[in-house]
Specification:
The protein is an all-beta fold. It has two domains: 29 residues, no CATH class; 163 residues, Jelly Rolls (Sandwich), CATH 2.60.120.260. Helices cover 0% and strands 48% of the residues. The strands form three sheets. Strands 4, 6, 7, 9, 12 and 14 form a six-stranded antiparallel β-sheet that branches. A five-stranded antiparallel β-sheet has the order 5-8-13-10-11, with no helix packed on it. The protein has a three-stranded antiparallel β-sheet with strand order 1-2-3, with no helix packed on it.
């Protein structure tokens, strides 16, 4: 394959590749990504209740310098959730579409009693949307799990008024268990991102 210039270099905006005598333009794509939250420090985070314990930063991680870690305990709150929430600087995600992906890396030390992991984003705890990652994609103990779900596939109709994509200030990450008495140490979240999905044709 030979690179062929159809116009002078000074005027050329994109290269052209020649294959079998036919000329094709090469289109470059910039990956649009938004990193959400800080998983390298416990400072902005608050546990959801006394069913969550030992909030800390673990040295094991994928991005940054650490990962957010917590344990599920059988607390007085009587819920199936272990998790944490935080307030972030207002974030505008309105440039993304329903097909774009919400991505995370999650570690669970044992997936036996894990039902799913969830992310909530919105203007407040009472006004947000929720996305879930089923236990089928959360393999325990052996490795980090890279998980993703389209923004358009919210797990619920929304909490309260749902979310305002242009003003995200509330963030929550959690792991749900099969029963409220289930306990498990070492639940880790490494990062959370929204990544543009490129539409392709064949």
């Amino acid at each position: 394959m030979a690179l062929k210039q159809l116009v002078p270099a000074a005027q050329r905006k994109m290269p052209v590749i020649t294959i079998g005598g036919e000329h094709y333009r090469l289109f470059g794509h910039i990956q649009d990504r938004e990193d959400i939250g800080n998983f390298n420090s416990v400072t902005p985070w608050t546990i959801l209740g006394n069913d969550t314990d030992n909030l800390s930063v673990a040295p094991e991680h994928i991005y940054g310098t650490g990962s957010l870690q917590f344990d599920k305990v059988d607390g007085l709150a009587g819920t199936v959730f272990a998790g944490a929430s935080c307030t972030i600087t207002s974030l505008d995600l309105s440039r993304f579409t329903a097909m774009d992906q919400l991505c995370a890396s999650i570690y669970v030390s044992d997936d036996t009693n894990v039902a799913y992991a969830r992310v909530r984003m919105g203007t407040a705890a009472g006004h947000c949307n929720e996305w879930q990652f089923d236990d089928a994609v959360l393999n325990g103990a052996t490795a980090w799990n890279f998980v993703h779900v389209p923004l358009g596939e919210g797990a619920t109709a929304g909490v309260g008024n749902g979310w305002d994509m242009s003003a995200i200030v509330y963030l929550e990450v959690a792991v749900a268990f099969d029963g409220e008495a289930n306990a498990l140490a070492e639940l880790r979240w490494d990062h959370l991102q929204v990544i543009r999905s490129h539409v392709t044709t064949t």
